[in-house]
Design a protein that fits this description.
The protein has 13 helices and two strands, in the order E-E-H-H-H-H-H-H-H-H-H-H-H-H-H. Strands 1-2 form a two-stranded antiparallel ribbon. Strand 1 and strand 2 form a beta hairpin. 33% of the residues are buried. Keywords: Membrane, Transmembrane, Transmembrane helix.
Length: 359
């Protein structure tokens, strides 16, 4: 066992450790660029290609910053996005999808509305998955041999619960097996627009999701509750008649998907109100948000001197309780007003912007 620069143990396991040591430096930016090229091929839109090029250059620059600061050791348990909050990187493909989706007359004109959404959403998920999958594998290489009680379990949520409460027997994968499953998940999503039956891709992605993400359920970025909406969204799309080429008009899968997403936020707001009444303590008093930020500063510290990272912003909020109170109240208001997104287009767009700021 060797201790890396982060102070965490490197678990030497033959081929698995050799795989981690041989990770190419430019793999992540190249993957992101490849997805962008697929998107450009589908859209024939130079704007998507330009955004993709900018996204790739940003990833390359971030990688160079890491190498100059910490060396070329791939086994670095740092922020999954190299000191940049994942929200800022995910914003790039997200905004691309949002802008192009507003111009259906020039974008994916050969596809119906549901299929257009499926392609946009799947490519956005694929980009963000490929940006961080190397970190998933490094975490799993450590986690499966850590000796922790949680490492004996496989499931979802912070404690490895059985998916949907069903008594499933989930296999414990080796690192190389997990890597292959990750490629299946990525390829299924990235090729939705190329498939004659996109629903088949969604079905394959669902299977790969449960095999992959149940292995890293306690990881702070891809595990716990962060990736839980993915299989539900994939299930709605897999059941869409348009993706089976049986109907070009029915939009009920997208309606169900919107209802599900909105219900997640609304239910969270109701739970906070209920807990406030039951415990006799107002949830939005600022203490909860302070606790979340403090936990984030320790669970993903990154580089405290970075100007790009979130550490400075976290310190700014933690040391100003009144800001935590205001942000908590606004967050609770956002959750309780989420159903408004179902009834008006302006409210829906406002919800999208507010959801990004919320996270």
């Amino acid at each position: 066992m060797v201790v890396g620069p982060s102070g965490l143990a490197k678990i030497e396991e033959g081929d698995e450790w050799m795989f981690l040591q041989s990770l190419p430096v430019w793999m992540i930016p190249v993957n992101a660029s490849a997805i962008g090229c697929i998107g450009w091929w589908l859209t024939q839109d130079w704007r998507l290609l330009a955004v993709c090029a900018g996204f790739t250059l940003l990833l390359l620059q971030l990688r160079l910053n890491v190498i100059s600061r910490l060396g070329d050791d791939p086994y670095l348990f740092i922020n999954p996005y190299w000191d940049v909050a994942e929200a800022w990187l995910s914003l790039i493909p997200f905004l691309t999808a949002l802008v192009l989706a507003e111009q259906p007359e020039t974008y994916l004109t050969d596809f119906n509305q549901t299929t257009r959404f499926a392609i946009l959403w799947a490519m956005t998920v694929a980009v963000n998955f490929k940006v961080s999958d190397v970190n998933h594998l490094m975490f799993y290489c450590w986690f499966r041999s850590s000796g922790l009680a949680l490492a004996k379990k496989r499931g979802l949520g912070s404690r490895g619960h059985a998916p949907y409460g069903l008594p499933w027997t989930i296999p414990k994968l080796k690192v190389m097996e997990m890597r292959r499953i990750g490629w299946v998940f990525f390829a299924s999503l990235a090729s939705v627009g190329l498939s004659p039956l996109p629903a088949v891709n969604c079905c394959a992605a669902i299977v790969a999701y449960f095999l992959y993400f149940t292995q890293i359920f306690p990881e702070s970025q891809a595990g716990q509750h962060g990736s839980l909406p993915l299989p539900n969204n994939l299930a709605y799309l897999a059941a869409a008649p348009q993706l089976w080429q049986r109907s070009a008009r029915s939009l009920y899968p997208l309606t169900f998907l919107k209802l599900h997403v909105v219900s997640l936020y609304f239910a969270a707001g109701l739970c906070k109100l209920g807990a406030s009444l039951k415990m006799g303590r107002w949830w939005a008093n600022g203490a909860n948000l302070q606790s979340y930020l403090f936990h984030a500063m320790w669970s993903r510290p990154g580089n405290v001197k970075s100007h790009l990272g979130a550490h400075r912003l976290q310190v700014f909020f933690v040391t100003r309780p009144w800001l935590c109170v205001a942000a908590s109240a606004l967050g609770l208001l956002f959750e309780l007003l989420a159903p408004a997104a179902l009834f008006h287009q302006v409210a829906a767009r406002t919800f999208v912007v507010a959801a990004f700021l919320f996270h």
